Amino acid sequence: MASRPKLPRFPLPAVGDGLREAFRAGYGLAELRKDVLAGLTIGIVAVPLAMALAIATGVPPQYGLYTAIVAGVVIALTGGSRFNVSGPTAAFVVILLPIVQQHGIGGLLIATIMAGIILVMLGLARMGALIQFVPYPVVLGFTAGIGVVIAVLQVPDFLGLTLATPGAHFVDKVAAIFRALPGIEPAEFALGLMTLGILLAWPRLRVPVPAPLVALVFAAVVAWLANQWSDGMIETISSRFSWEFRGLSGQGIPPIAPAFMLPWLQPGPGGAPLQLSFSLFQALLGPAIAIALLAAIESLLCAVIANGLTRTRHDPNAELVGQGLGNIVAPFFGGITATAAIARTATSIRSGAHSPIAAVVHSLVVLLAVVGLAGLLGLVPMAALAALLFVIAWNMSEPHLFLRTLRSAPRGDVAILLSCFLLTVLFDMVLAVAVGVGLAAALFIRRMALLTHSSRVPVGSHPDVTGLPAEVAVYDVNGPLFFAAAERAVSSLHVVDPGVRVIMLEMTDVPSMDGTAVVAVQGLVDEMRRQGVALIFVGLKSRMVLKLLRVGVRRAEGRLTFCAGIEQAQKVALRWLGPSPPPPA
Fold first, then answer.
1. Are residues 394 and 458 in the same domain?
2. 15 by DSSP, 3-state: which?
3. What is the reported pLDDT for 465?
4. CA-to-CA separations, 299 to 71, 341, 584, in angstroms, rounded
5. Does 386 share its domain with 496?
6. pLDDT value for 258
7. CB atoms within 10 A of CB 105
C-alpha cells in the first residue's frame, strides 16, 4: 500500500517561551526575590506613567492603569522575551488620539483588538525577523517626531491654558496654543516647572526612589494645599475626570479592579453609543495596521535592547504572538493598546529582574494602587503629568542620536531621517514610515546599482587570460544584475569592435540575477547572434544558468556555451575560431 506523502510542517512559535526560558535557566527563591523587588520598582514607576499616557491619548486615566494590569500580565506570560515589561507607551499617542477623537473609546478598543489579531498572525507567519529590515533612520525619525508631537500636546496642561478650538492637526494645535497664551495660569505653570525640575534633578542624587514618584507626590501635596486655600486653583485628575460603574459614580479614578466589558458597547464619538458596522471596521483597519506595526517594532526593539543588557536571547515570533494576545484580551477589561516599554524594561533589568514574573508583579502593584490608592491618585495635578510627559517625550526623541546622525550619516540617510521626522510631526506616523521605508529602499537600490558594472579586460591585464587573438574580447561583469543595474551593465556589451568574433563574459562575481536581468541577457544573446558573434558565459552560478535555460538561452556549438572557468573558456574560444593561418614567409 502506497504511503501518503508527508505535508511540510511549519513549526508554530513557542508561546510563553520567555517564561520557559527563565525556568530552564534555573529558578528558585533567590530569583523570585529579585523579581518581586524589580516588580515593585517598576510598578511604582508605571502608575503615574500609565495615567499620563492614557490622558495624553484622550481617555480617562484608569484605562492606562487597566492596560498595565491586564496586558502586562498576559504579555509577560505568553511572550517570547524574559524581560520585556509591557503597558501603554508614548509612541502610540499620535496614533490613538485621532482614533478616540473620531470613533470614541469604543472605537479605540475595537482597533486594539484588530491590531492584536494582526500581531498574532504576524507571529504565526514567523514574520518577527522581518522587523529588523526597518532602517534605523526611519525608526529614529518617527520616534523623534512622536516626541515633538507629545510635547506640544502637553503645553496647554503645563501652562493651564484653555483652548477654544484645539485643532485637528499639528499646525492648528500650535496656532491654538499661541492664541491662548494670554490665558496662562501662573499657579499651574509654577507647579509644572517645579515638577519638571524635580524630575530632572532627582536622578542625579542617586537615591533609590523613582523620580516620578517623588515629583508627583510633591506636586499632589502642593496642589492639595493650594486648592484648600483657593478651591479649584489647580486642576487635578479628580477635578477633570469622573466615572460611573454599575450604578456607582465618583470623581477621579474608580477604586475598582478591571472588570469584564464588551468593547463594542462602550461610548463612540462624543459619548454616544458606538454603532457597529462594516464601514466602522473599514475605517479602523488602517489605524489597526499602524498600531500592529508600531507595536511589533517597539516590542522587538525592546527585546533586542534587553538581550544586550542581559546577554540572553528572545523568540521574536513568540513575542509577537504574546503582544497580540495581550492586545486582544486587554480591551475586554478596559485596557487600551499596549506594547513593550523600553524604559520600564531597562529599569526592571537594572533592578535585578530574572524572569517575566517581575512584569507580573509590576501589574499586581498597579492593581493594588487602583484598588487601594485611587483617591490619592486623583490628587495628582494635570500640570505635573504634563511635566512627566515632557520628560518622556525628550527621552524617546533621543536628541543626541538625532543630532549625531545629522552630523555624521551619509546624505541619503539624513534625508530619510528628516523626511520621517517632518512627516510624523506634520501628518502622521503611518505616512512617515511608508515614505521612509520607500526612500530607504530606493537609496539601497541606487547604492547596489552603483556596485554593478561591466568592463572590457585589456589584453595582458588579466593574469588568467593569455595568448588570445584580437578576435576574442573578454568582459568582466561584477555585482548583482537586477532591474536597476542590469540594463546599464548589459547595454555596454552591445558595442563590439568589428573584428571581434567571440565574447567571453567573466561572471564569477555576479551573485544574483533577477527577471529584468534575464530579459536583458536574452536580448544580448539575440543581438550577438544577429552580428555573428559567439558568447561564452564564464563562472556563472548554476541557478542563474538554469534561469537562462528556462527562457531559451541554450548551448549551441560555435555560438553560445557556459564554462566553469576562464581556462576552459579560452580553449573553447580558440576551437571555435579554428586553426590560426601560418605566418607569412
1. no
2. coil
3. 64
4. 13, 7, 80
5. no
6. 94
7. 24
Q: What DSSP state is assigned to residue 162?
A: -
Low-confidence ranges of the chain (pLDDT < 50): 1, 7-8, 581-585
Q: What was the pLDDT predicted at 6?
A: 54
Please give the full DSSP string across 377-431, using - where no structure is assigned: HTT-BHHHHHHHHHHHHHHHH-HHHHHHHHHHS-HHHHHHHHHHHHHHHHT-HHH
At 246, list the grid cell: 454599575
**Final residue of a domain: which of 358, 383, 398?**
398
Residue 23, CA distances (Å) to 28, 354, 536 in order? 9, 10, 61
Print the domain residue range for 500.
453-577
Residues 23 and 114 in one domain: yes
* Cα 474 to Cα 227: distance, rounded to the nearest angstrom: 89
Q: How many domains does the chain have?
A: 2
Domain match, 89 and 189 both: yes
Find the angle CA(236)-CA(237)-CA(239) to the nearest 5 degrees: 65
Q: Give tens-digit pLDDT for 4-57.
A: 555 445 566 666 778 888 888 888 898 899 999 999 989 998 999 999 999 999
CATH number of the domain enclosing 522: 3.30.750.24
Residue 432 located in a structural domain: no
Which residue is listed with cell 549551441?
556
pLDDT at residue 358, as a whole number? 94
Q: How many Å apart are CA 226 and CA 305, to the nearest integer?
A: 43
pLDDT of residue 584: 45
Q: Is the residue at 48 inside a domain?
A: yes
pLDDT digits (tens, 9 = 90+) for 497-511: 788 899 999 999 999
Distance CA 161, CA 157 (A): 6
The pTM of this model reads 0.80
Specify whether 387 is located in the same domain as 464. no
Does residue 23 sit within a domain?
yes
Residue at 433 is within a domain? no
- Cα distance between residue 525 and residue 544, in whole Å: 15
Helices (H) and strands (E) in the chain, counts: 21, 9
Do residues 107 and 273 make contact, with C-beta atoms less than 8 angstroms apart? no
